[in-house]
Q: What sequence folds into this?
């Protein structure tokens, strides 16, 4: 089994240091399906747990550049590497002699704490940006600074790096990592930890703990190079530094474009051969035949006409050469044949999630969503059969469609999934008991499709561009999108477009988020 291990900042997290819901949803689906996934970061437990709160991890994680491994299931530390007394004294002497102002990480009374002397403008600036870190412990002197089981020291923009390099050597039992911070103002971090720690040793240990056969790592910065050297395969995100790209097995998409989860998705869901989606105009004659076949089928069974007619007509249209109600694993599919599996779903895509988790591993799946574009409403006197009125309604809102796509968002980038939106003309008949048209529970209603107007095929991110309104500026707010979309819920639309990678956040205007349309790849 393969163990996937990702760095966090600049790799799995976006440029704002956040794990987007899209990434979390995808990774959680992989984890629930049995994929081994973890992370290896320079962060400590508190901040790492905060930024990855949406992940439902089952494997241990590597923290503080490999100083310790934490198991989120048991709450235990399978590995903890601490400085011994000699190393602690060397560290203390280096700090006091140089006048540096590092943060010293230690376990004090069983709790991880970050101790510091508030005597450096650079450190003050850093701490001001991270006010909610509950580990922080301001001290008044060097004795307090080095209390507890010390395991890590972090220097920001060190004053004399060569002097530090002369002390924190491998011969003295130290390992160091020096790299530029991912986030502004891009300070230089110089970090010191026990030589027996480090990302390389820790990911090897993690591979052993999980029983994995293969280790695949992802990173972006210089402190990921040792981890890459320990990996069976290693991939640099597109925004990684040149040195890491040179050490990588390959280059994947950037952290802003969900590079890690999309790569894992392609690996665990290998593309299954399937004929390319037919994007021709709907066949009107064949659809009329499909409706007639569906009506005839229903006349020979018990039940009244309702949504069933639309469902059966689309099943006959899309699955004419397929086996209907085919057993696939634990579920039944509307159709299965040479063109893959077909599911006709008029609403609540949530119910498809468990089906797709199984079916996408073994076949290409096409989900057909009937969109009632034009509806002719007939009010009929049940006693006389008289048509009392006919009204026509044209639906221009995509809110219901985007709600269903949102429910299925964790699967929308899967290479083995196609969503077809079938725009239909519908006759809807409502039978009233008399001419007074009093609405009562249990009134008989019938729906029957009369024409297949058009179809939208959603397979690739660029396919979603069809929903973008004309006149959309280069950068826009949700309110601006809403004004152009009119009846469509712009919030739902943006959630889906962000997920598939068409829309992306590009800044703020005051407290208002700005978006732009991304280049789809």
A:
């Amino acid at each position: 089994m393969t163990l996937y291990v990702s760095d966090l900042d600049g790799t799995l997290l976006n440029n704002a240091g956040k794990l987007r819901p899209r990434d979390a949803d995808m990774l959680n689906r992989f984890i629930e399906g049995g994929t081994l996934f973890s992370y290896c970061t320079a962060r400590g437990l508190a901040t790492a747990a905060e930024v990855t709160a949406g992940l439902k991890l089952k494997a241990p994680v590597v923290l503080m550049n490999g100083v310790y491994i934490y198991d989120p299931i048991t709450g235990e530390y399978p590995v903890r590497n601490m400085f011994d007394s000699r190393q602690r004294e060397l560290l203390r002497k280096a700090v006091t002699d140089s006048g540096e102002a590092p943060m010293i990480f230690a376990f004090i009374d069983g709790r991880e704490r970050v101790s510091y002397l508030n005597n450096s403008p650079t450190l003050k600036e850093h701490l001001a940006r991270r006010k909610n870190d509950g580990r922080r412990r301001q001290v008044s002197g060097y004795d307090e600074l080095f209390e507890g089981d010390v395991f890590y020291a972090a220097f920001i923009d060190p004053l004399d790096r060569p002097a530090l390099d002369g002390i924190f050597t491998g011969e003295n039992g130290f390992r160091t990592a020096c790299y530029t911070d991912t986030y502004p103002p891009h300070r230089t971090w110089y970090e010191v930890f026990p030589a027996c720690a480090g990302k390389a040793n820790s990911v090897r240990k993690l591979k052993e703990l999980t029983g994995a056969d293969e280790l695949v790592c992802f990173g972006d910065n210089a402190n990921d190079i040792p981890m890459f050297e320990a990996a069976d395969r290693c991939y640099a995100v597109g925004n990684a530094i040149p040195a890491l790209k040179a050490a990588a097995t390959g280059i994947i998409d950037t952290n802003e474009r969900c590079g890690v989860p999309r790569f894992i998705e392609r690996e665990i869901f290998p593309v299954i051969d399937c004929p390319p989606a037919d994007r021709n105009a709907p066949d009107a004659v064949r659809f009329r035949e499909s409706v007639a076949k569906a009506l005839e089928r229903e006349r020979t069974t018990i039940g009244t006409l309702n949504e069933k007619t639309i469902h059966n007509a689309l099943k006959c249209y899309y699955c004419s050469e397929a086996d209907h109600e085919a057993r696939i694993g634990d579920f039944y599919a509307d159709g299965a044949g040479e063109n893959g599996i077909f599911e006709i779903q008029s609403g609540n895509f949530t119910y498809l999630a468990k089906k797709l988790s199984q079916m996408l591993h073994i076949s290409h799946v096409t989900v057909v969503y009937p969109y009632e574009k034009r509806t002719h409403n007939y009010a009929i006197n049940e006693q006389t059969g008289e048509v009392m009125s006919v009204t026509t309604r044209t639906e221009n809102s995509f809110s219901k469609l985007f709600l269903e796509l949102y429910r299925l968002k964790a699967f929308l980038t899967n290479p083995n999934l196609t969503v077809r939106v079938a725009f239909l003309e519908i006759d809807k008949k409502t039978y009233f008991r008399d001419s007074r048209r009093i609405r009562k529970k249990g009134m008989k209603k019938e729906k029957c499709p009369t024409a297949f107007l058009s179809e939208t095929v959603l397979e690739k991110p660029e396919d979603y561009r069809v929903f973008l309104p004309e006149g959309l500026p280069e950068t826009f707010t949700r309110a601006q999108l809403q004004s152009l979309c009119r009846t469509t819920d712009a919030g739902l639309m943006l959630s889906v477009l962000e997920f598939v990678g068409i829309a992306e956040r590009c800044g703020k205007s005051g407290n208002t988020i700005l978006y732009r349309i991304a280049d789809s790849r």
About this structure: Residues 284-299 form the longest helix (16 residues). The longest strand covers residues 365-381.
